[in-house]
Amino acid sequence: PSEEMITLMWSFVVSIYTIGGLLGSSSAGYLSVRFGRKKAMLLVNIPALLSATLMGLSRLCGSFEMIIAGRLFSGVCGGLALNIHFMYAGECAPRKLRGLIAITASTAIGAGKFVGFALGLREVLGVEALWPVLMAANALPALVQLLTLPFFPDSPRYLLIDKKDKEGCIKAVKQLWGDGDHMAEIDDMVAEQEAIRGEKAKSVCDLFRDKAVRWQVITLFLVSSCMQLIGVNVV
C-alpha cells in the first residue's frame, strides 16, 4: 500500500482504542448491576485476553486487521474496567479510606503508562522481533486478576441494595474490614436503600437533566476536558 494508506491504517489502529473505550464505558453500568461488580470485573478479562491473543498472533498470521480488532477489544476492556473498578473499590472501602482507595485507578493508569513506555524501549521489547510480545503484554494483569479476584467478596453495597442480601452484605463487610462494629456504615446503606426504593436507574440523559448534580457534572467535564490538553496524548 501507499505511504498515505499506511499512515491511515496506523492512525486507525491508534484511534480505534477510544471507540472501544466508549463502547465499554457505555456498558459498564448495566453489567455492574446485572452481574455484580465482582463478576463484571471478571468478565472484563475476556476482551483483555482476546485483544492480547489477536495482537500477539497478528504478525504470525500476517494480518494488520487483527491488530485493529485487538485494539478495539482492548479499548472495550479499558472502558469497562476503569468504570467498574471505581464502583467496586469505592464500595468495598470503609468510609475513612474511600477517597484514598478511589484514586487507585488513577495510580494504576499512571503506573501502567510508565510500564508500557519502559517495555517499549528498544533495549526491552521495542524491536522488530519482539513487538508482538509487547502488544500481548496486557494478558498478564488480566491473568493475575482472574486468579486473585475470585477470593474477594462482592461489593457490600451491591449485595444489600441491588441483591437485597443483608446477610451477604454483613459477611462481605467482615471479610473486607475485619471483625468489629460496622453497623453504622451498614445502616447508612440501609438508609440509602430506603431512599432509592422504587426509583429506576438513571440514564446518561437523565444525569444531564438532573439539576441536583449539575455543578458536579460540569466540574468533572471541565477537569476531563483539560486533561486532554496537557500534552500526554501527544506523548
From TrEMBL:
Protein's UniProt name: Solute carrier family 2, facilitated glucose transporter member 5
InterPro entries in UniProt: GLUT (IPR045263), MFS_dom (IPR020846), MFS_sugar_transport-like (IPR005828), MFS_trans_sf (IPR036259), Sugar_transporter_CS (IPR005829)
Name of a matching Pfam family: Sugar_tr
Organism lineage: Eukaryota, Metazoa, Chordata, Craniata, Vertebrata
Location in the cell: Membrane
Single GO term (MF): D-glucose transmembrane transporter activity
Keyword Membrane applies: yes
Record domain Major facilitator superfamily (MFS) profile: where: 1-235
GO cellular component term, pick one: plasma membrane
